[in-house]
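R.M. (postdoc): so does anyone remember the format we settled on? I'll just put the structure tokens first.
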């Protein structure tokens, strides 16, 4: 089951679908056995490393952008980094209030199903926008804040972090590829912050804490995540978000009917 969860995490984290909704279905199949929150956090760490590896060029240019300040230069990637910081603020604030809901997704299958349907429909509607030529390297800070607010709403069980960011970016006029790119980059500080908070709570001297299992899960999540990122970025050059929106709606209906 833990291997399956690592695979599900790697897939659902980067598709505009809800990983929490899939967790509910998998856990139900295995007799309502839910993994510990710490294990799920480790899976997210694997996903975060995959983002950093795939987008290493962006991250490197962001670093160079910050170093360029000492020479009086303000690069596009420095501007992008500020957009990421601004976009992270809402999720940091809202996360403090919704932490208990996020921590216990198994208690809210109805809410998860409902949110999956609602946000799936919103993703489709946002994707109908024809004009999509805004470059993320020139993103306004207002746009960054609005996309960050969408990411904060994604803390609701079943909403999908990446899907909400893509939805907001598409609605604001960014291309599917750029919307996805920014959603993934915005995920780095969000995942990192949540992971640090939870990992510091772990008693590593506890004999029930299986470090090898954590490492295994993180590695599987990383490998699957990287593959999904590569495929997602290629697919969105040719297809719309419609298949993902329909899939989310179907999953939401299944949760409402059978869970």
């Amino acid at each position: 089951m833990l291997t399956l969860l690592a695979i599900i995490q790697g897939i659902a984290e980067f598709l505009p679908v809800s990983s929490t909704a899939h967790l509910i279905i998998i856990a139900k199949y295995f007799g309502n056995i839910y993994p510990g929150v710490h294990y799920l956090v480790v899976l997210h760490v694997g996903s975060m490393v995959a983002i950093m590896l795939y987008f290493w060029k962006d991250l490197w240019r962001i670093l160079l952008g910050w170093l360029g300040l000492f020479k009086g230069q303000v690069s596009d990637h420095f501007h992008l980094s500020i957009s990421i910081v601004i976009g992270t603020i809402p999720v940091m604030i809202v996360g403090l209030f919704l932490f208990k809901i996020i921590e216990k997704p198994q208690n809210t299958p109805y809410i998860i199903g409902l949110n999956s349907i609602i946000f799936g429909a919103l993703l489709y509607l946002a994707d109908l926008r024809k004009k999509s030529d805004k470059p993320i390297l020139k993103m306004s800070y207002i746009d960054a804040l609005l996309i960050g607010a969408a990411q904060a709403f994604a803390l609701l069980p079943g909403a999908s972090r990446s899907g909400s960011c893509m939805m907001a970016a598409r609605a604001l006029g960014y291309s599917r590829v750029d919307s996805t790119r920014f959603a993934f980059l915005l995920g780095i500080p969000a995942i990192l912050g949540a992971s640090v908070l939870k990992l510091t709570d772990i008693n590593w001297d506890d004999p029930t804490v299986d470090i090898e299992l954590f490492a295994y899960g993180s590695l599987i999540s990383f490998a699957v995540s990287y593959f999904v990122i590569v495929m997602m970025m290629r697919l969105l050059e040719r297809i719309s978000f419609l298949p993902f929106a329909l899939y989310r709606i179907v999953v939401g209906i299944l949760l409402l009917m059978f869970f």
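R.M.: ...and that's the designed sequence above, right after the tokens. Also worth knowing: Residues 76-103 form the longest helix (28 residues). The chain is about 75% helix and 0% strand.
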